[in-house]
Amino acid sequence: MSITKKATVLAVGLGLVTLSACGSSDSGGDTPASTSKTVTLVSHNSWAVSKDVLAAFEKQSGYKVKVLKDGDAGQAVNKAILTKDNPQGDVLFGVDNTLLSRALDNDLFQSYEAKGTDLVLPEFRVDEDKHRVTPVDTGDICVNYDKAYFSEHKLTPPSSFDDLIKPEYKDLLVTENASTSSPGLGFLLGTAAQYGDDGWQDYWKKLKANGVKVVDGWEQAYNEEFSGSAGGKKAKADRPLVVSYASSPPAEVIYADPKPASAPTGVAAGTCFRQVEYAGLLSNAENTEGGKALLDFLLTKTFQDDMPLNMFVYPVREAAQVPPEFVKYGPRAENPETLDPAKIADNRDDWVKSWTSLVLR
What we know:
Layout: E1 38-43, H1 51-61, E2 64-69, H2 73-82, E3 91-96, H3 100-105, E4 109-110, E5 134-146, H4 147-152, E6 173-176, H5 182-195, H6 200-209, E7 213-215, H7 218-225, H8 230-234, E8 241-245, H9 248-254, E9 265-267, E10 273-282, H10 288-298, H11 301-306, H12 308-311, E11 314-315, H13 324-329, H14 341-359
Parallel strand pairs: 1-2, 1-3, 6-7, 6-8
Antiparallel strand pairs: 3-10, 4-10, 5-8, 5-9, 5-10, 5-11
């Protein structure tokens, strides 16, 4: 993000089958957890992996992986907390730095240091004393713009948070609900980082007055409301600005048929917030050994190399491969906004409450 957010950037792009499960065993309630050969991954909707890569893991480990997709990252984390005493699966993927403290404060995960943790780039490591979560990917939440719209209207695309409140961009932006969506929350945190404790609320008052539209999650915002995406074009969307990811433009090229010479969407580089996604072994997982094996798999070079073109995020492992399409069409933001995890933990819930009162009421 999970820029996500990512694998579903285009409705026709992936065609992956969601494998859902309410437990972690295929063979019935009498099978001890220690002998279960099914491991269940709970995730947001953007989880994706190449079939051959997953099949190789299943063959090597002896575990069959089932995936339960649970909406946007915010929804998935909230549901995992509510069901933590009787979890839906063994591993949760997709909790990010905007929501991490909520998960840790609710004792959602048990300690496990995944193999390969020492190969994770230092800037992405957290909770190193307890190892309750494993860094998996990173990306930048940024406003994307529809190049055709701005060309046709002879209007310069916005490049900063300040630009978004200007009259020429009135009624053009759609974003996600900060209380239910990790991109929406990331965008809110980006404004908090940019304008500080005393300024972000005034900024959002101006953004609301300038006609920002808020929807529940990324999929709706990007594929139904944003005029620049393939899905948005089919839906006859009318918003040429959307909160998405710096890696969204490459997806628009990769999944287009025929492929365009350049990406049809661009990124407002001054609106980005750096996101890191994690996975963890759920505290009451039935199949802890299978969960550990799955976490190890997420840090293998095979998975980290495979991940970018499936989930449209960047790897966190040293020497993992970044696709040339990312370099050409969706480079990482050079100066994204960031916030100290402790500051997010101390302020997130109050910020979201204030944001809800300001923007949704």
